[in-house]
Amino acid sequence: MPAAGLGLLVLVALGIVFTGLPAFVILIGVGSIGAALAVLTDTVPLSLLAALPSRLINLLENDLLQALPLYVTMGLLLDRLPIADALYRAGLSLLPRRPSAPLVSGMALGALLGPMNGSVGASVLALARVVAPRLAESGVPKPTQFAAVAVASTLGVVIPPSLVLILLGDAMLSAHTIAVTSTGRADRVINTQDVFHGALAPAAIFLALCFALSWRAGRRIPPSAGPPPVKLTRKQAVLAAITLVALLTLLGGVATGYFYAVEAAAMGAFVLLSAGFGTGALRGAVLRGVLHDALAITGALFALLIAATTLTLVLRLLGTDRLVSDWITGIPGSELVVVAIVLGAIGLSAFVLDAFEIIFVIVPIAVPPLLIRVADARWVSVLLLLTLQTSFLLPPFGYALMMARGTLRQTLGFREMVRALLPFLIAQWTVLAAVLLFPQLVHVGENASEASRTPATPMTDQELQRRLRQMLPPPPEFEPPGH
Amino acid sequence: MKLARTVSILDRLIAGLLRLAGWLVLPIVVLLFLQWPLRDIFRVYSREANDLGQWIFAIYVAASVTAATRAGTHLGTDAVARFYPGTIRRALTRLGAILLVPWALYVILGSKDIVLGSIRGLEAFPDTNNPGYFLIKTALWILAGLMLAQAAIDIAQPRRNH
């Protein structure tokens, strides 16, 4: 019966691709079908499904998930208030007046807004509205405009404290707790802050590469088609300066652990709301629009969470997580090989699942056994983040690409799109490979006492499997079929 | 005619509830922001702000799923299905709504003892004893109830939000 769970995962992939229905509907539908079949064939007693309501209540009272509406609201306010425009103009006025300047300024805007608005979708909306028209005015070819908007919108995935980072941090905490308890290692369990710190150096390298590539792409544009003169009013300059200081304070506060990520998000949203109400920009239809969209976008993310909770419960009752765990713990070779294989599989799932779906469905199943084999949870977290960023940019279905195509209303051929994206993808894969080969990149400035400590007495494989089985099932008295 | 009228009333009722729920994001932002100065500067009432923010958050996200369905913001890929004719797409939307019905019914019936017990006892937050924890459990019924009502509307009249 554990293999039936794999069948359910295939059904999810087919359902998402061929029905066009929301992913959460497919996840709940497939989960319900799996649960019904398991109960009807007496594989799983009906009473065990009673764990579902409690798990859903856990989601409703999860402190970290409060970040969802906060980040969504921030993203919407940044789009509705003239802040993004002021930042972009300020960046452009600081750079030499060359054809590359709008591309570099657009990339910088993506890096500044990404962590603040948290979601790739919100970043695409802001960049498409503020940056894309000016790139067009400056003679930047359509495929390059498209690539710049898509790549810049994913910078928030790796620059803390974005929503993807927070949610992955939470998923990693659960996975690492299972791994540490199962193996008896004396590690401190990873938290969201560790993931933030680990991502800083790789994010800085990728950002530097993006600036260099944007500058290089701009050199191909004829100088005659350079950007038109930028008008930066005093009001815009002040707004850009205040925003920059506020952003750096928030990012610094979160990076140093002075604020929790949720508090930083609340602070950002509060400041933006106050600015909106204070300046009169947020009233009437604009306010109602923000409230409506905040509820609807938060719902899209929360729906995925409840759906993934349903499906993963069914997979656990069927014993599929144990099957996957046996496979992963049994992969021969070094840590590097195991990590590369699991990341490759997650990368493949990115063809049909988006980053949030991967965090909610795949990570809880695949990562606990991975962390049993590989002790460095911070390294695994950052590699996962970079893989998720790749998933956003992977043609043709990457979420950032789909969003950018829809928002910019551009009809680009597949080849044109790939040609414009390729330098950025190569840069992204280079950073991924560098982190894979040099794990110390994610430990810059880390306290040596936080390193993994193996138990005094090495554990046998049988003991490890026994402990893992105790950790994984929802009700401990239930032994899934096939074991 | 009677069915169409019932669906229309239900549709307007849900729309009104969701409009009200949308405003809850404002107290969530304010309360979660206030936690930091209340904890680190004034050193009072930060737990109260947290608990209050928590149950408002629970009700907000419980309503948000149906709001996403009505606004068509759920994540999904349209790469293949956009080529399907309208009749197939409407049939698929109806199928999607049907798939949610057993789940929503199970959540409501399966949580009956947990939710009703919590409401009857006006359960307080376990750590702080502040009132309102029962509202978090009630939010589960709001979540499933709204999804069930929306599914009924979509089965009767599939919406075009692809």
Structural summary, described in words:
The complex is a heterodimer of chains A (483) and B (162). With 483 residues, chain A is mainly α. Chain A is 73% helix and 0% strand. Chain A has helices spanning 2-19, 23-40, 51-60, 67-80, 83-94, 101-117, 120-130, 132-137, 142-153, 155-158, 163-183, 192-219, 234-255, 261-279, 284-318, 320-329, 335-349, 355-373, 377-393, 399-408, 414-437, 461-471. In chain A, α1 crosses α16 (320-329), α6 (101-117) runs parallel beside α9 (142-153) and α6 (101-117) runs antiparallel to α12. Chain A is globular, with a radius of gyration of 23 Å. The model of chain A is unreliable at 473-478 (pLDDT under 50). Chain B has 162 residues and is mainly alpha-helical. Chain B has six helices and no strands. Chain B has helices spanning 2-22, 25-42, 46-71, 86-110, 112-120, 133-156. The two termini of chain B are 27 Å apart. The model of chain B has no long low-confidence stretch (mean pLDDT 92). Classes of the chains: A mainly alpha (483), B mainly alpha (162). Chains A and B meet through α1, α2, α3, α4 and α14 of A and α1, α2, α3, α4 and α6 of B.
Q: Key features?
A:
A: mainly alpha; B: 6 helices; 0% strand
Topology, pairings included?
The complex is a heterodimer of chains A (483) and B (162).
Chain A: H1 2-19, H2 23-40, H3 51-60, H4 67-80, H5 83-94, H6 101-117, H7 120-130, H8 132-137, H9 142-153, H10 155-158, H11 163-183, H12 192-219, H13 234-255, H14 261-279, H15 284-318, H16 320-329, H17 335-349, H18 355-373, H19 377-393, H20 399-408, H21 414-437, H22 461-471
Chain B: H1 2-22, H2 25-42, H3 46-71, H4 86-110, H5 112-120, H6 133-156
Helix pairs in contact in B: 1-3, 1-6, 2-3, 3-6, 4-6, 5-6
